[in-house]
Amino acid sequence: MADDRADQTTPYDASAITVLSGREAVRKRPGMYIGATGQRGLHHLVYEVVDHSEHEVMAGCADEIHVTLLADGGVRVVDDGCGIPVDLGPEGKPAVEVLMTELYYGAMPDWATEHAQASGAPYRIWLAVVNALSERLEVEVRRQGHVWRQSYHRGIPDAPLARGETTTATGTTITFWADPEIFSTTVYDADVLRWWFRQLAFLVRGLHRLTFIDERDPHSDPETFSGGLADYIVYLNRGGHYPYPRGVGRHDGPDAHQGEHRKPIHSEIIVLEAKDAEQRIRAEIAMQWTDSDDESLRTFVNTILTSQGGTHAEGFRKAVTSLIAQYAKEAGLRAGKLGAAAICQGLTAVVNVTMADPHFAGPTAEYLDNAEVKTFVQKAVTERFGDWLTHHPDAAETIARHAVQAATV
Q: How far apart are CA 292 and CA 110, in angstroms?
């Protein structure tokens, strides 16, 4: 073996190491960044661009997002946010160009840090990945009283950022055409995107309207998604579909199918909100008990489905179980211990946590592993749901009696 190594004619030294730029690295190993180069990876480009607009909403800068599948195969995403900054950075490039071309910026610039703190989620610098994997990309920024434009070809700017006509509007428009040299298909599945848009409308706080248009189909009408967590509970109780078809969604969830119809046993949907003092973690929760034999709990982190649950689910269940068990005992409804299975029977709930640095267990990022989130969610639910039970005694007794009955069956 030693002789074989000595006989090699190509030396392994510094000259054998190839350093790739961000763009080159993405194009050479796209699967490392978007998971695949089939339709699932293709959809991931849409998710990344819409995520940018979503964070504008979460930061309070926008309330509308419009997505269009163009007839020529492109995708256009428009928001009414603040617009990506166009000021020159330390490297002498406009911030928008840096965001579109650099994967790792080093220290996060001030404008991105402020945005991340306001939205409770990290600023999306992965637009550069979309740009690198697009045959063509065009960005239009409405900011500082002007329209600013720049176009790119496979991640390389065609020309410097150009200042155009004056405007009083603000926001960002990104239009891109996925590169057929990278993807095995450049045909988007409107149904897959539609499910995801519906979920975003339920989960993203402050999103007034998300509009989806498929110009590839001349018979397709524009669709508008809106709502909030309370509307999500109504949707699920009425037998609404799961968010993603298996194998093609952003994170694989259950097969898309019509769910069971669940009749609520109390009229009001319980909505809870909380954030920590430093605003590093925010939780939004909606729940309602039904006559179903099963629990229906969906948990999310930064609007991403955690299908295996995690510390946010654990904190939620522990608080709910403790409160209902205590209520039943104090009301004389149950002398023995009530378990989580009986208390959560028939519960429809959505737990959405927003945070800057989520940690996941497992290779598929479907289980949240941040220990501090369990403590935060448990404390928040204990305080706010406990207060709700106090002010809604009839509903509280109905829920407790439902749990007692489930425990005796």
A: 50
Q: Do 230 and 202 touch, CB atoms closer than 8 A?
A: no
Query: By 3-state DSSP, what share of the chain in percent is helix, strand and coil, each rounded to 5?
Result: 35, 25, 40
DSSP codes joined into one string, 25-54 = HHHHSTHHHHS-SSHHHHHHHHHHHHHHHH
This prediction has a pTM of: 0.81
According to the 3-state scheme, what is the secondary structure of 155-207? CEECCCCEEEEECCCCEEEEEEEECCCCCCCCCCCHHHHHHHHHHHHHHCCCC
- Under the banding of pLDDT at 50, 70 and 90, the label for residue 313 is very high
pLDDT bracket for residue 279 (50, 70, 90): low
Angle at 170 between CA 164 and CA 171, to 5 degrees: 95
The answer to whether the beta carbons of residues 259 and 241 sit under 8 Å apart is: yes
What's the pLDDT score for residue 363?
56
Q: DSSP letters along 84-97, please?
A: ---SB-TTSSBHHH
> Taking the CA of residue 191 as centre, how many other CA atoms within 13 Å lie in the half-sphere pointing to its CB?
8
- The answer, yes or no, to whether residue 215 has pLDDT greater than 70, is yes
Q: Report residue 193 as tokens.
A: 């995107």
d(CA 310, CA 301): 10
